[in-house]
Amino acid sequence: MRPILMKGHERPLTFLRYNRDGDMLFSCAKDHTPTLWYADNGERHGTYRGHNGAVWCCDVSRDSSRLITGSADQTAKLWDVKTGTQLFSFKFSSPARSVDFAVGDKLAVITTDPFMERTSAIHVKRIAEDPQDQDGDSVLVLENPEGRKRINRAVWGPLNQTIVSGGEDAVLRIWDAETGKLLKETDKEVGHKQTITSLCKSADDSHFLTGSLDKTAKLWDMRTLTLIKTYTSGVPVNAVSMSPLLDHVVIGGGQDASAVTTTDHRAGNFEAKFYDKILQEEIGGVKGHFGPINALAFNPDGRSFSSGGEDGYVRLHHFDSDYFSIKI
Amino acid sequence: MVEDTDMQEEIHAEDTLEQVAARMAAARLHQRIEASEIMANLDIDSRAAQLGIDWSQVNLDSIHLPPGENFGIESDDEGVYHDDQLEFDTGFGNIIVVDNLPVVEKTKFAKLENVLKKIYNQLGVIKENGLWMPVDLDTGVTLGYCFIEFNTPQEAQNAKEKTHGYKLDKSHIFAVNMFDDFDRLMNVKEEWEAPQTKPYVPGENLQKWLTDEKARDQLVIRSGPDTEVLWNDPRQKNTEPVHKRPYWTESYVQWSPLGTYLVTLHKQGAAVWGGADTFTRLMRYQHNMVKLVDFSPGEKYLVTYHSQEPSNPRDASKVEIKVFDVRTGRMMRDFKGSADEFSIGGPGGVAGASWPVFRWGGGKDDKYFAKLSKNTISVYETETFGLIDKKSMKVDNVVDMCWSPTDSIISLFVPEQGGGNQPAKVALVQIPSKVELRQKNLFSVNDCKMYWQSSGEYLAVKVDRYTKTKKSTYSGFELFRIKERDIPIEVLELDNKNDKIIAFAWEPKGHRFAVIHGDQPRPDVSFYTMKTTQHGGRVTKLGTLKAKQANALFWSPTGKYIILAGLKNFNGQLEFFNVDEMETMATTEHFMATDIEWDPTGRYVATAVTSVHEMENGFTVWSFNGKLLYRVLKDHFFQLAWRPRPPSFLSPEKEEEIAKNLKKYSKKYELEDQDVSLLLSEQDREKRRALKEEWERWVMQWKSLHEEEKLERQNLRDGEISDEEEDDEEAREVKEVEFEDVIDVTEEIVQE
């Protein structure tokens, strides 16, 4: 499994996303241009120019026609995937941290950071079929009870009925997507102890995996918010992903970026660690990054995955055949 | 001075004391009642109302509890009774009572007051209006005593010590007491009562851990707020908890040298724990703000240390050391003074004395302990806790001293004097006779370090000498054979004289030693022996390992095996080496390891990453030959310590016999090993099956829900058929192919 190194970004990677067919890979980084790659050979296809700040997150519509990106320039932008033209720009008064299309791609959830007097918030926007009709009005705005704490990720629950969010206050919350009521939240006992950095849904929206700086990743039922599994890593977790094919989860992270230069490169543990999803045991790891791993994504076919690091590289790994016969 | 003798009257000390005590008792009682009332009133009132009792009618004193009944309210602390004096701090600690003053009339009152102020102002700061001399209300004559309130309890204590017995004149000798002590003094019964002998309660078996059926060892770890004692269970590849407590200690924990006790440190002092099944508190030793503790080798005595930073940075810090009898808890001796008296005043001696201040000698009998200070060595004996011959030993400019681990012999080192005119000296001194057994003069010496072999047979002195130019130094060894006649000394120089010596270690109970020498980052490791068949009593080199990444040596407690470790800069390189065969058994790495500890039997090694590093805190247990057994990750990992074992009772002959017939003995353990591993894999399989089943249940549930919501999802997608279900099936197919498991292969020979 010789990885393909994709060097297109000049700054640390922040997010990776495959389209549904698994032939395109979108990458976001702290430089201002989200990039599209061929998911097979790692060739660069194009970039989306227009943001004026770090791009934190993106999502692609089911038919791979629309891309939405959230950026620190206080906008979230809609793009035409094929041409790279900007279709619309949602303006906020604080950085947009996370974006997610709903089932049917008619709604999108966008989170914004606390900034100056602004508290962190979750916005629901309607996405028009024809970009001409697109407006910037929010259907719903949710205020986080811990307004000074950042929300790092918000995604849609099953059938767009709920929104799941998690962030710096280490609490996972489920909101009613219609009324905006807070339905459930995790308590201190079972929940994460530190900032939740990442969140990844299963393909059927039944469960999701969260990663946290408390050095664990946890698997939850998406409807009841029941804790199902906990995976312990020795290092802070920045990114998580689940194999759509096998019962594997992959967890990435590493020593805090500010401490990297002060220690040996091995001390950072910039490894993408594979765990058995059911037994919660570590299967193995993929080394290579020389900075913390900030983003992980599985190809929807489960036969390759990519990781993005603080080092500015995207590493695309196609699994060897013996990966599929791992037994523990 | 007050000279008016006509003022003197008969002083009735008893009277005055009584008055004071009465006042004081009243004040104290009042305080207590107030405090308890506030807390309990609400509760009691509501309960009384429930039961229909008019509370104001009840005379509390008339109620007696049946003897021996506590209404189920148990004291949760058996030590609570001893604590009373500690917990009730009256806040009067800075007041002293001066008795036996002259009784004076009003006219002389001011004069006496001035005299007293003059005396006591030298000893501390008297608070404003802090001096109160009561007078008889009718006559205005003083009553012959006064109260003085100082700013701090320390000043009061000091004033009490300094002026108790102060002679104002012939018939006025001050009797000074702490105000807080009056209660206690007044409660002394008139008649002496014979102390009751407590019925003998058989103590717990403090050595129970040694009788573990699986012959396991214990270790203590501290991580986060928790302190845990664990069994090392290499068969299960895990630890088994024995006892765990959050906030068990306020700084660190330490085992006693024979493993009987675990000592914890607290604000109020130290405590030792032990016992048969769980850890119960056996004894407490009061020493406020204790910082360090040390046991005597036979664990009879515990030395506690406290130092206080001086308020003025130019002063030396204050040091207080107490020696306790471990079993009775009695303080045998305490030492107070400035840090200078407890150290040789080296350049680094700012924060306090170097620990341990007292070094114990004379083997396991705990007979002597010695202290090194400027130009003197003070040797105390534990029979009287006084100096031997009531005198310290005068040794000019002595800088280092070590006890032999088994005999009462001190080795000491005196550096060069007078710019090299007077040579440096290493000497062996017998205690208690203080006879010098052997000494060696050394020339142009920079520094010396002494290493005793654990059974006291050899002493190695590493000598750093100046080269001719005096610009650099080189090292050599002087080896003393203590047990041979006249204590012969041998000089050993390394093959390359200029090599720096990085580490030195004797083989425990053995005759070999290892030296790391040469230049970083790849120094050499050499092994030497003190006895070989060919050379008789000559030191011989066994071999050198070239260019090793090592900077520390860890011999197995039973000898023969050694770990060459590269800690700190070498990131935790480990080499397990067999010295008998001179071969490497394993080279591995525990990344960033900071500590290495052999278990007391030499079967296992624990390597740990403590919280000096941010990540991957925890410890790893290896077998003696470098096989990784298991890892335990703990955030904020502070400390790991194996519980020591007392020396074996087996005679050397018996041990040899066992070693010879090892096969016979090991059979039993091999069988046990097998059983355990079978059981383990069975349990493991069971656990996995349960996990898989549980997961299947989740998946089933999700699948059915997914199916139910299929239509709604289609609607959300404008009728587009969601094709995810297909994907699911595909995934399942792939998996099914993979589940082929060879559970067992048995070979049967069919006889024809």
Automatic annotation (TrEMBL), chain A:
InterPro entries: eIF3i (IPR027525), WD40/YVTN_repeat-like_dom_sf (IPR015943), WD40_PAC1 (IPR020472), WD40_repeat_CS (IPR019775), WD40_repeat_dom_sf (IPR036322), WD40_rpt (IPR001680). CDD domains: WD40 (cd00200). The keyword Electron transport does not apply. It is found in: Cytoplasm. Its main location: cytoplasm. One of its GO terms (biological process) is formation of cytoplasmic translation initiation complex. One of its GO terms (cellular component) is eukaryotic translation initiation factor 3 complex, eIF3m. Keywords: Cytoplasm, Initiation factor, Protein biosynthesis, Repeat, WD repeat. It holds the Pfam family EIF3I. It comes from the Eukaryota. One of its GO terms (molecular function) is translation initiation factor activity. Component of the eukaryotic translation initiation factor 3 (eIF-3) complex. Component of the eukaryotic translation initiation factor 3 (eIF-3) complex, which is involved in protein synthesis of a specialized repertoire of mRNAs and, together with other initiation factors, stimulates binding of mRNA and methionyl-tRNAi to the 40S ribosome. The eIF-3 complex specifically targets and initiates translation of a subset of mRNAs involved in cell proliferation. Belongs to the WD repeat STRAP family. Belongs to the eIF-3 subunit I family. This is Eukaryotic translation initiation factor 3 subunit I.
From TrEMBL, chain B:
Residues 94-181 form the RRM domain. One of its GO terms (biological process) is formation of cytoplasmic translation initiation complex. One of its GO terms (cellular component) is eukaryotic 43S preinitiation complex. Keywords: Cytoplasm, Initiation factor, Protein biosynthesis, RNA-binding. Gene3D superfamilies: 3.30.70.330, YVTN repeat-like/Quinoprotein amine dehydrogenase (2.130.10.10). It is found in: Cytoplasm. The keyword Ribosomal protein does not apply. SUPFAM superfamilies: DPP6 N-terminal domain-like, RNA-binding domain, RBD. Residues 721-731 have a biased composition (Acidic residues). Its main location: cytoplasm. Residues 710-720 have a biased composition (Basic and acidic residues). Residues 710-734 are annotated as: Disordered. GO terms for molecular function: RNA binding; translation initiation factor activity; translation initiation factor binding. PROSITE patterns: RRM (PS50102). HAMAP family: eIF3b. Component of the eukaryotic translation initiation factor 3 (eIF-3) complex, which is involved in protein synthesis and, together with other initiation factors, stimulates binding of mRNA and methionyl-tRNAi to the 40S ribosome. Component of the eukaryotic translation initiation factor 3 (eIF-3) complex. Belongs to the eIF-3 subunit B family. This is Eukaryotic translation initiation factor 3 subunit B. It comes from Brassica carinata (Ethiopian mustard).
